[in-house]
């Protein structure tokens, strides 16, 4: 990836209805923690996202991405929950907030 691409500030896309439903139905302490994470994300560069030990951005190999998306990733959005997302240019397009760790990776 080119240097300029990884130094670009992350832009958030929170428009996915599933993500919105997942986020808005979290209990208040978790919802506030998720919003803190989102606020932090929008101040980061992509390089910082990739390296941040707290977010733990990782490719999900067990889930085949939809057509037109290279890969789906997970990131820690609260202490106990992970979100799924993909990168689209400067945007992180958020898809879900998983109810538990295993469901993030498509496991039952």
Automatic annotation (TrEMBL):
Domain of life according to the entry: Bacteria
Name this protein carries in UniProt: Uncharacterized protein
